[in-house]
Amino acid sequence: MKKTWKEKFAVLSLACAQLVPAFGSVVLGSTRIIYPSQDFQKSIEFTNSDEVPSVMQVWVDTGNESSTPATADAPFVLTPPMFRIESKSRQTVRIVFTGEELPTDRESIFYFNSVQIPPATSGEEDQNKMLILLRNRIKLFFRPKTIDGSAEQSIKQLQFSLEQEGKDWRISAKNKSGYFVTLTKGVVKQEKSHDIAVEMIAPYTEKNWLIQNPGEVPKFPIKLELNYVDDFGGNKQVEYEILPTIK
């Protein structure tokens, strides 16, 4: 009996496929998803720019990069969770929050996964062979309407201090807002510029970044240049002045 495309995909996904982070011909219309708590659902759209159809499977996890549709543990229902998208066409996926209790004073982060399997060529459908499934994984922020302030102003609610740590210097960054702040690049501007390894800062938490072997005594005020990602996936830049810490 000939298998349906859903049966073939399920078997391939679980038994003989290798997941790799990649961008296929089927693309999502955004690089991050913001889910306002007051919304009943959030719709996202896939576009297939290829000349052939593909099969997609989607799910949301709580942070496990090795998650699968079977182990997905996030409080969301996706419709449809698996679908065929024809060539040169679009497909909408609805995300519905299932109502689990989450913090109301800050965002919660989840991860939206999509896997694309290319169509089998003639004569390959029943062969046992390794297939490479193209996986994309982006952040999904659940945003309560009761958070103080706005996402646009959260970048201005970062506070910085500088302390010596042996021969190195450490910048402490505190996020005083209820929003995740995603940083992509950091540069300390002195007589000599120093790149620092920045990262996303969760609401009401602190991160520490080392300036290794600075080779000079910091002169205040210190200029700190940061690149960050806004709600629309745009990369923006902001500059701060770090003043001496008064104890």
UniProtKB/TrEMBL annotation:
Highest taxon, organism lineage: Bacteria
Keywords noted in UniProt: Chaperone, Periplasm, Signal
Q: Which organism is it from?
A: Sapientia aquatica
As for subcellular location, the record says:
Periplasm
Ranges of residues in domain Pili assembly chaperone N-terminal: 25-147
State any GO BP term from the record: cell wall organization
Q: Which InterPro entries match?
A: Ig-like_fold, PapD-like_sf, Periplasmic_pilus_chap, Pili_assmbl_chap_C_dom_sf, Pili_assmbl_chaperone_bac, Pili_assmbl_chaperone_C, Pili_assmbl_chaperone_N
- Signal peptide positions on this chain: 1-22
In this chain the Pili assembly chaperone C-terminal domain maps to 174-236
Pfam families recorded for this chain? PapD_C (PF02753), PapD_N (PF00345)
Name of the protein described by the UniProt record: Molecular chaperone
Gene Ontology CC terms, in alphabetical order: outer membrane-bounded periplasmic space
Q: Which PANTHER family match?
A: FIMBRIAE CHAPARONE (PTHR30251:SF25), PILUS ASSEMBLY CHAPERONE (PTHR30251)
User: Top-down, what is the taxonomic lineage of the species of origin?
Assistant: Bacteria, Pseudomonadati, Pseudomonadota, Betaproteobacteria, Burkholderiales
Q: Which family does it belong to?
A: Belongs to the periplasmic pilus chaperone family.
